[in-house]
Amino acid sequence: MSSYKPEGLLLETAENKQHMRSAAALQEACLTNKTLEARAVVCDSEHNLVVDLGIMRGVIPREEGALGIIDGTAKDIAIISRVNKAVCFKVLSLEADSSGKPIAILSRRLAQEECRQSYLAKLRSGDVIPARVTHLEPFGAFVDIGCGIPSLIPIDSISVSRIMHPKDRFRCGQDIYAVVRSIDEAGRICLSHKELLGTWAQNSIFFAPGQTVAGIIRSVEEYGVFVELAPNLAGLAELKEDVAAGQHASVYIKSLIPEKMKVKLIIVDSFEVNNYTPTFSYFITEGHIDRFQYSPDCCSKVVETVFE
To answer: Domain of life here (predicted)?
Structure first.
């Protein structure tokens, strides 16, 4: 696994804490070009980040706040949004402020540049990587793939079972895995997630006709109700009054038809659930995928992802 992790994962490590114990330890981090983490506590009116190092105050000047700030390809929200969160940085120098108190000058940009050159630039389509969810939009989930560098998982790549919003699957701050879907000419990485949640056969093996199981109603159509049994497995239930997308349900499994990738269901009951936290399990968490085939071999319709 890469040493370039999403922001926040270094914060409580013994090595990171060791470098915050004294000015000499910070100076050593400066001389050895070490990447450290601490919590940003203030963003001033000029968009310089103030970082709490414990033994002294650290400052990340605006132009050192993120990749792209200098050339205008990144907006200042990339800096402002870090307040009260962990930030990674390199120590540029130890100085004294106007009152004579020690202060560390830091650079988040340099930590991100090293991550991009030493880690992200070496990735290729099909590589499985760790990520941390940073924020959710209707069109997809933004994740940190190393040192605060963002990437996007489009909503249709989150799971096979369709969702109305990424919040149906993720929570901000959640640590997940993703697979590199594509890399454009500018080096921007787009991710996918559904290939790591298993095939139709891998998911359906946990269910059998005659069982009554838990599900989530994902959509209500004229011809039936789609119910999610697992993030990569949904079935079609007969229409039932007073059901709505987002409700939880107990469903009776009539049949599983692998050659058609179908699960036929009957809704026993549906109800609202408050404060629901989505959960899921991974079938793949590391390595590389050349091809993912969701559909069973016995199915005439082939559903697959080819990573090129």
So the answer is: Bacteria
